[in-house]
Amino acid sequence: MRVYPEVIGVASESSGGTDTLERPDTLPQDGGQGPVPVVGTDTVIECRGLTKRYRVALGYEIEALSSLDLQVKRGEIFAIVGPNGSGKTTTLKLLLGLIFPSEGDAFILGEPPRSRRAKRRIGFVPEGPFFYQHMNGEEVVRFYGRLCGLRGRDLRARTDELLKLVGMSKRRDVVMSQCSKGMVQRIGLASALVNDPDVVLMDEPTSGLDPIGAHEIKELTVRLRDAGKTVLLCSHLLEQVEEVCDRIAILHRGSRLAYGPIDEILQITDQTELVAINVSEDAARQLAAMSSESHTRAGELHCMIKEDADPFQALDVVRQGGGELLRFGRVRESLEDAFIRAVTASAREDAAISTDAADTGGTADMTGGSDEATAEEGGEEA
Amino acid sequence: MTIGYATFGEAIRRRILVIFLLFAIVSIVGSQIFKAFSPGEEEKFVVDLGLNSIKWFSILIAILLGAVMIPQEIERKTLHTVLAKPVGRGQFILGKFVGTCLAVLFNASLMAIAFFVVYAIQQKGGFDVSLLYQFALTCMELILFISIVVFLSTFSSTVFVLVVSFCVVVLGSTATFWKNIPAENEISGLLFLGVSALAPNFEIFDLSRPILTGAAIAPDMITYPLVYGFMYTSIMLLLSFVIFNERQF
């Protein structure tokens, strides 16, 4: 049994209603399958032109995923974000071999998705998992452990460790039919980690969790990354993703709109934000006049300085008004802003291509066009 | 076997299964009361009702369990978490098949124990070993039938499986009729031939006539159905693997 690296912070299982995550004493086992060769590359997940079409009535097809190119590097948290129906879950299903691509290829740990060799090193946390209702939490984790080849003492130790990790050790005897959504999600996470996966795939991991539970899952995700695991997570909760991920891909209607490091995708805007407290009424009035937007919240004055105004003059106003400066600087857009920007650009591109096609009487690959255009805008090439 | 045990554990907790089991046992035990309606043939009545109760209640249980086991896993997406582990799709099907067989045979065994006790009381301690042969063949028949239900559930919905399974039971239990029915034209002839060739023949698993008449049971009356059942089951499972392997979830 290997010793877990010191990257995982300690927390104790609370006796109250909400459990907290804990540091496991040991690293997960190898699943009893012996060592698996390490792929000689830093790319852990790769999608090349991955396309999935579903046949619908009367021979029509819908494209759930269009020519997705993607590379997830070892030891990073990579997020696929997008609204419902954007192709996030389809991508995960393709990577797990649950569905087959119409075109393109996917590789996980250098193996095709259905490879059992690869699956020994993968953990999957589905959205709203559903487990055998007659089993309790401990039995569920043991069941998945046995599927991974764990037996006897190793399985018992691993189960105890993971139940502790997800804050379910005191509620291990609760049968699944009586578990809350949050408890089921925690058990799902423990089951996914039972084989000590190198790669963890998460589909909306915070779905159904209260804010504390969601925060704990975020923390655990970071700890997994710090422990050398690669995490691929899909979510439409942009705010949560923004806080933890290293790189992202934004999907919209099956197309990749942006792709790259989060810092590159989230642009720094031309606007300057100023937050101050104890500002005199007169100074506040002056600042409001210099701002495109200003409001007071919990005693703090928030101002977005107009682009044509001098931000340093606003600083002087705060100083002269006896105020205390809390924050001052250029604003980086949120992931939500970046997402809306990418979608809007894509829609504009689509409209332009449609107009061109109508003018020339020809047809155009709208998806491909929008993909390329917005990927550039996203800041990184496929 | 992990999937098999989980399936068994889930199956035996189903309330409907317990209800059928109770009905079967009530029917078997009740034969001691109702035998009065067949004066002079009390033993035949008890044996006939007992054997038929075991068979038909077990088939009902097999239909209800088999029809939901795989479609429910797909619908609830439990299958996603299982197939995300290093588990082959063939292993999954085999596990579901074994688990369902264990649950059905476990119930059939409880019914058989009830029947053997009732029969022993009827015979004042006597016991006919041919009843054990019949139970062994009933078990093989149930295994074969479950393999068909599993095969159907690899590509269709619960309702479809229920309807088609019921049809298979009817066709299989009237195999001789379909084989010997005079064809009015070429098409109906081909249809009857097809039905008798494809549908399983459940009649060969029935030893009730020699048991009730006291005739000797030839060895091939045991071995042939066992080999037939084994072959048919193997083919059904093989087809299930092939279809399930290509399915997308």
Q: What order do the SSEs of chain B take from the amino end to the carboxyl end, as H and E?
A: HHHHHHHHHHH
CATH superfamily placement of the largest domain in chain A: P-loop containing nucleotide triphosphate hydrolases
Q: What is the number of independent domains of chain B?
A: 1
Helix content of chain A: 25-40%
Strand content of chain B: under 5%
Text of the CATH class of the largest domain in chain A: Alpha Beta
Task: Please provide the count of β strands of chain B.
Answer: 0
Strand order of the largest sheet of chain A: 5-6-7-3-8-9
Discrete helix count of chain B: 11
Which structural class do the helices and strands of chain A define? alpha/beta
Distance between the termini of chain B: 23 Å
Computed CA radius of gyration of chain B, to the nearest angstrom: 19 Å
Shape of chain A: globular
Distance from N terminus to C terminus of chain A (CA atoms, Å) equals 40 Å
What string gives the helices and strands of chain A in order? EEEHEHEHHHEHEHEEHEHEEHEHH
CATH architecture of the largest domain in chain A: 3-Layer(aba) Sandwich
